[in-house]
Amino acid sequence: MTRDTSGLIKPLKLGRFNIKNRIWNSPLWTRTASVEGEITDRTIAHYEARARGGCGVITTEACSVDGRHTWKTPQIAIYDEKFLPGHRRLVETIHAYNIPIICQIHHAGMFGNDPVSPSGVKCADLGKVGEFIESRVLTLEEIEEIRDLFIAAACRAQAVGYDGVEVHGATAYLLEQFFSPHNNHREDKYGGSVEKRATLAAEIVGGIRAACGPDFIIGYCGADCDWVDGGITRDQTTVLVQILEKAGLSYFDLQTDGTYETFHRIECSAGYRRQPIGQFDKTAYYKSILHIPVTTRGAGEYDPEHWNTAFLNDECDAIRLGKQLLADPDTANKAVSGDWENIRTCIKCGNCINSGEVMPFELSCAVNPGMGRYEKPVEPAWVKKNVVVVGGGPAGIEAARVSALRGHKVTLIEKNEDIGGNLYVASLPISKETFMNYINWGKEQFRRLGVKVMLNTEATPELIDSLQPDTVFLATGGKPAMPPIPGIDNPKLIKAEDVLKGKAEIGRNVIVAGAGEVGIETSDLIMVKYQPESLTLIEMRPDLGMDMNPMDKAMLFANGALFPTHFQNGLRPMVNTRITAFREDGVTAVDAEGNAMEIPADTIVLAMGYVSEKSLAEKLSGKYDVKVIGDAAKVSKIVTAIYQANLFARSN
Ligand SMILES: Cc1cc2nc3c(=O)[nH]c(=O)nc-3n(C[C@H](O)[C@H](O)[C@H](O)COP(=O)(O)OP(=O)(O)OC[C@H]3O[C@@H](n4cnc5c(N)ncnc54)[C@H](O)[C@@H]3O)c2cc1C
Ligand SMILES: Cc1cc2nc3c(=O)[nH]c(=O)nc-3n(C[C@H](O)[C@H](O)[C@H](O)COP(=O)(O)O)c2cc1C
Ligand code: SF4
Question: Per-residue pLDDT averaged across 642-652, rounded?
C-alpha cells in the first residue's frame, strides 16, 4: 500500500542542522550505565540501535549534573571530566549515522539520593503506596551552585561533541519543583511570581547560551500543566517558555502532563493503561506563541498516521518516542517507508516502568527481548529444520517467528480459533485492549515469513508424529488452578477468563475468589459492566494484588483512580481469608484467627491463579527435541514467555 509519509520527512531545521525526519527517540532511562555513572557498551548499543533504526535526532536519557544529588543508580553522569570518555564514544557512534545527538541534563531534586527542594513540600513516592518523600530546603548559595553545575555540564557536553543539551524541566524534578507554585514558596529571587519561579531555568538556559555560543542546540522539556491543586497551569508555562525563548532556547519539548503524584489521573483502571494523551493540540498552542520548534513525547500516541497528519498540519515539529522505541528500535525506518504493519507496537503493559524504574532490575521490554541486550539480528541457521510450535500465545508466536527468520520450516498448532493464548485474555480487562497489538503484529509476521498456522487444532502425539518435526516448541501455556477445596468442581462456578470473554452470566451478589492481578482486573470489569449490589473479593494472603508490579499497584490504589471508587459501590475486599468450601449459595471461609464464616453469593468467580499445562511433554519426550517454553515451563509474565522463546529459538 502506498502511504503518505510526507509529514514524517517534512523539512525541519534545528539549530544549524537539517533534520532528516521528525521521529526522534525520547530521553528514557536505560539503566545501562555503570553503577558509578559511566556510559557502557550496552548504553552505546542501545542508542546505536535507535540511530540505525532511523531516528532523526538522538537524545540521551537524563544525565546527572550534580554528583551529590543523583537519581536512582545507575544514572549516567556528566558532572565530572572522568565520565567524558564514555560520552565521547557515544557521540562518535551516533555521528557515524549523520544525525545530531543531544545530552539531557538533569537534577533530581527531591527524587535524588539526598532529597532537596525549593521549600521542602512533601511529595508522594509513587513506587511505594502511601509513602512520602521529605526533602531539605536548598539555600540561595546552593541554588546558584546548581545553576552553575548545569552550565558546566553543558560545556562538558559540548567539549565531547554533543550537538546540544536538553535541560530537564519536567516530571517534578528540581527545575519543575522551582517552577511549581505548589512546591516553591521561596521569598528570594527564585520564588514568588511566575517570572521569579522561572528565574532558575532562565539563568541556566541563558548561561549555557553565553558559554556555548549561538550554534549549540539548547532544548528545555516542561509540562503544559501538572494537575496538582495550586500547581503549574498553561498560563504559567506560557510565561516560562517565552522567557526561555528570549534567553536563547532552540526548541521546547512538551513533556507529558502531571507529576509523579498525578500521573494516575490519566485515564486508567485496574492498573494504568495509558490511552493516547493527545499532545498535538497542546503543541499547536505552544507553536502559536513561540518561534522555535516545539516537539513532544509519544505519550501513548503510536500511530504513524496521526504523527504524519500533525506534522502536515504544522501542529508539532517532531515526535519523540519513548516506550515505542523500546518495543521496536526500527520504528522510524518502518514509519518513514510506509511499512506501518511491520512496526511492533508497544502494548502499554508497563513492564518497562516496573522493571526499569520501580524494581531493582534491568529495564526490559515485554515484546522486544533484545532490549538492553545488544539487539542482535537473528542469524540464519546452518542446518534447516522442520519446527513444530504447539500453542499460539506469546511464547509460541515468538518461537515461530524466530525459527522462521532462521530459515526453518515452521508449523504452529493452536487449539483455539485464533492465536493469542492468555495474551488475548489479558487484553480483555478494562483499557488493556492495546495488548492485541502484539497478536496482530504476530499474524503479520507469520504472513511475511510463511509460517503455517493450524487453528482449531489440538496437538496430539499422533498429529505431531505425522508432521515429523526435528524440534517441538511446547508453548501450551497455563490453565486455571483448581486447588483441592470442596465444591470447586461445581460446574456453576465461573472462571475469571469466561467473565472477561463475556461468556458468563453475572448476578447481583458476586464473590471473586482470589485477589491477584486477574481477580482484581476481573472484579474491576464486573463492577463497571454489571454494577452488582455486592462483590466480595476474597484473598488468602494479607493484601490485594500481591502478585502485581508495585507501580501497577500504586496506580490502582492512588487517590483519584477508578478502582478505589468501587469500595463505595459495593466491592468488599476480605484479605487473610481462606475459602474452605464452595457451595451453591456462597462460600464458607476462615479468617486469620480461625473464625469460620459464611459468605452468601449468587455468582462465584474463580481467580485462583494458573498452573502450567505441559502434559504433552512427557508423551513426546525421547522422540523429539522438545523445548518447553513460556507459562508451560513456569507460569509467569509476557516478558518471560517471549524472552525464553527468543533465547531458545535463536539457538535451535
Ligand atoms: C486475565 C489475565 C491478565 C494478564 N495480564 C498480564 C499482564 O498485564 N502482564 C503480563 O505480563 N502478563 C499478564 N498475564 C499473563 C500472560 O498472559 C501469560 O504469562 C502469557 O500469555 C503466557 O504466554 P504463553 O505463550 O506461555 O502461554 P499462553 O498465552 O497461555 O498460550 C498457550 C496457548 O497454547 C494453546 N494450547 C494449549 N494446549 C494446546 C494443544 N494441545 N494444542 C494446541 N494448542 C494448545 C492454548 O490454547 C493457548 O493459546 C495475564 C493473564 C491473564 C489470564
Ligand atoms: C523507564 C522510563 C524512563 C524514563 N526516563 C526519562 C528520562 O530520563 N528523561 C525524560 O525526559 N523522560 C523520561 N521518561 C519519559 C519518556 O521519555 C516519555 O516521555 C514517556 O514514557 C511518555 O512517552 P512514550 O509514550 O513515548 O513512552 C522515561 C520513561 C520511562 C518509561
Ligand atoms: S515493556 Fe510494555 S509498556 Fe514498556 S515498551 Fe515494552 S511493550 Fe511497551
Answer: 98
494-608 — its CATH code?
3.50.50.60
CATH superfamily of 386-480+612-650: NAD(P)-binding Rossmann-like Domain (3.40.50.720)
372 Cα: distance to centroid of ligand 3 (angstroms): 13
Q: Where are the beta strands (DSSP E) in 82-146?
A: 101-106, 116-117, 123-124, 132-133, 136-137
Whether 325 and 52 have beta carbons less than 8 Å apart is answered as no
pLDDT digits (tens, 9 = 90+) for 573-600: 999 999 999 999 999 999 999 999 999 9
- Please determine, looking at this structure, whether the domain spanning 12-345 carries the CATH number 3.40.630.30: no
Would you kindly state where each structural domain of the chain is located, as residue ranges?
A: 12-345, 386-480+612-650, 494-608
Q: How much is the mean pLDDT over the chain?
A: 94
Q: How far is the CA of 437 from the centre of ligand 3 (A)?
A: 11
Catalytic residue among 79, 162, 173, 260: 173
Q: Taking the mean position of all CA atoms in its chain, how far away is CA 166?
A: 22
Nearest residue to 280 via CA among 318, 249, 322: 318
- Contact between 256 and 277 (Cβ < 8 Å): yes
Query: Which residue stretches of 460-516 are H helix?
Result: 461-467, 496-500
For residue 206, what are the contacts with CB-CB under 8 A and spacing of at least 6?
247, 248
Q: What is the DSSP letter of 532?
A: -
135 lines ligand 2 (CB under 6 A): no
CA of 204 to the centre of ligand 1 (A): 51
- Pocket of ligand 1, beta carbon within 6 A: 349, 366, 390-396, 413-416, 421-423, 425-426, 458-459, 475-478, 497, 500, 517-518, 521, 613, 616, 630-632, 636-639, 641
pLDDT tens per residue across span 520-573 = 999 999 999 999 999 999 999 999 999 888 777 777 777 667 888 999 999 999
272 catalytic, yes or no? no
Backbone angles phi, psi at 165, to 5 degrees: -130, 155
Strand 610-612 vs strand 478-480: parallel, antiparallel, or unpaired? antiparallel
Measuring from atom 7 of ligand 2, which residue has the nearest CA?
Answer: 28
CA distance linking residue 67 with residue 561, whole number of Å: 36
Closest by CA to 290, choosing from 232, 222, 230, 228, is 222
Estimate to the nearest angstrom the gap between the alpha carbon of 598 and the chain centroid: 42
Amino acid letter, residue 184: N
pLDDT single digits (tens) 318-357: 999 999 999 999 999 999 999 999 999 999 888 988 777 7
Q: Which atom of ligand 2 is nearest to the CA of 62?
A: 8
Q: Taking a C-beta distance cutoff of 8 angstroms, is the pair 57, 24 a contact?
A: yes
**Protein residue closest via CA to atom 23 of ligand 2:** 299
Q: Which ligand is nearest to the CA of 368?
A: 3
- Cα(74)–Cα(26) distance, integer angstroms: 19
For the stretch 11-49, pLDDT in tens is: 999 999 999 999 999 999 999 999 999 999 999 999 999
- DSSP lists the bridge partners of residue 443 as none
Q: What does the pLDDT read at residue 72?
A: 84
**Separation CA 343–CA 158 (nearest Å):** 34
Ligand 2 pocket, 219 CB below 6 A?
Answer: no
- Report how far ligand 1's centroid is from the alpha carbon of 478 (Å): 6
Say if residues 74 and 34 touch (Cβ distance below 8 Å): yes
Domains 386-480+612-650 and 494-608 are alike in CATH topology: no
Is residue 324 exposed (0-12), middle (13-18) or buried (19+ Cβ within 10 Å)? buried
